[in-house]
Specification:
With about 450 residues, this protein is α+β, with helices and mostly antiparallel strands. It has helices at about 5-10, 15-40, 55-60, 65-75, 85-95, 110-115, 160, 185-195, 195-205, 210-235, 250-260, 265-280, 295-310, 315-335, 340, 345-360, 365-380, 395-415, 425-440, 450-455; strands at about 10-15, 50-55, 100, 110, 115, 130-135, 140-150, 155, 285. The strands form three sheets. The chain has a five-stranded mixed beta sheet. A two-stranded antiparallel ribbon has the order 1-9. Strands 3-4 form a two-stranded antiparallel ribbon.
Length: about 450
Amino acid sequence: MFISVFDIFKIGVGPSSSHTMGPMIAAENYIALVNSLLKQNPDFKVARIKCTLKGSLAFTGKGHATDSAVLLGVHGYKPENLIEVDIPILLGQLNSPTLISHLTTELMFDPEHDIKFDFGDALFQHPNGMIMECLDENGERIHHEIYFSIGGGFITTVDEINSIEAPIKGEPAKLFPYPFNNAELMLELANQNQVSIAEMKLTNEKEHLSDVQINKQINKIWQAMKSCVENGLEAEGILPGGLKVKRRAKNLYTQLKNEPATGNVNDWLCAYAMAVNEENAAGHMVVTAPTNGAAGVVPAVLYYFMEHENGTLEDVKTFLLTAAAIGGLIKHNSSISGAEVGCQGEVGSASAMAAAGLCAVKGGIPEQIEQAAEMALEHHLGMTCDPVKGLVQVPCIERNGFGAIKAYTSSSIALRESGEHIMPLDSCIAAMKKTGDEMSHKYKETSLGGLAVTWVEC
C-alpha cells in the first residue's frame, strides 16, 4: 500500500491526532454527507444530529478534547483551518445550542445533548469508534454512519475498515515504480537499483506530484515543525486540563543556552521534543509525526541535526522522505494508534522514523537505516498508553524526549556497524502488532490502568 509522505506528516492541532483531529474530520465529513442528502432528497427531514463516542474515544475523550473536536467538525472546521484561530474563543461561541450555518436546512446542534460518551463495549472493529446519526422529530434514526479514527488523523468508515488493508485508504504499492510493502523488499529494491530509500520514496511520490510541489510541501512541513519547536521553547505557564502541568522546555533550553558546556545531546533533544509536545498539549499547531502524541520525536531529532550538525534543506528532504518510508511500513503492517497497540505504536514508531531519517542524512546505507529503525522500535516494544487523566501530558511529554534520545542512539550505533543484525525490522513490526493485540485494553489509551490509576489527585 502506498502511503504518501504528506499523509504521514500532516499539519494540524493538538492534543491528539486520533482523538482530536480524526473525530473532527469524521464529523465534518458526515455533515457534508448530510448536506448532500438534503440537496438530493427534499423528503429527507432531519431534526437533530447526534454523535456517540465509543471505546477509547469515550474513556479519554474529555482529556483529549474529543467532544470539542466533534463540535468543531459539525460546524465545518478541519484541523488545518484552525492553525491561526483562537480555538477557546471559537468553542465559547459554539458551546451552546447553535445553528449549523452551512447546512441547506436550519438545524441546531447542542453539544451537551447531542454528543454522548458511551462507556460500554467498544465497537469490535477498532477501539476508536464514533457513530454519527440523523434523527427525525420523533427521535428515530433515519440515517447513520460509523467512523473509526485509526491514528495519525486517518479515518475510515465501517464499510471501508472491513474491506481495505491495514486498514488504510491508499493505492496498491504495485502501481508505483518502487513497490515495497515491507522492509525486506525495500532493501532488495534499493540494492538492485542502487538507489537510496529516500530516492525510492521520492520517485513514488512523483507519480502524483511534481518536483516543485513536493519540495514546496516538504518545506512547509519542515517550517511547521521548526515553528512548533521554537514556539514551545519560548512559551511558559500551566497547560490546560486540570493536572496543572508546568511547561518546562523553556527553562531547560534557557539553562542550556546560558551554560552550553553543562549540556549534552540528550538535554538538547529533550528540550526540543518537550517543546513540541507542550505545544500539542496546549492545543496548538503540530505536525503528525506520525501522530500528535508522538509529534515531538521527529522534529526534535531533525531540529537538532539542523541546528547543531549543520544540516541543509536537502538533508531535510532526505530525512523526511526516509522517515515517511519507515512510518508507512509500520502503518501498513501494524499500527500507529495508541488505542490499538499502546504507545509503542506512537512514540515507538516515531523513534524508528527519526532514527532512520538521521541515519540517512549522516550517510547510512539502506541496511544501516533499516537497522537503526529496528533498534529504535525494538526498545519501545510493550510500551503502554496510560495517560494520566486522559491528557496528552503525563507521561507523554517526557516520553517524546526519551523517544528522540533512543532514535539518536540507534542511528549512532547503526552507523558504526555494517547493517548486519539479528532481528529484521519486519519481524520487529510484527512483534509490535502481536504485542498490541495481546495487550489489555486498560493499557491502550483508556486511562483504566498503569500510571493513570496509580496517580492520586490531591
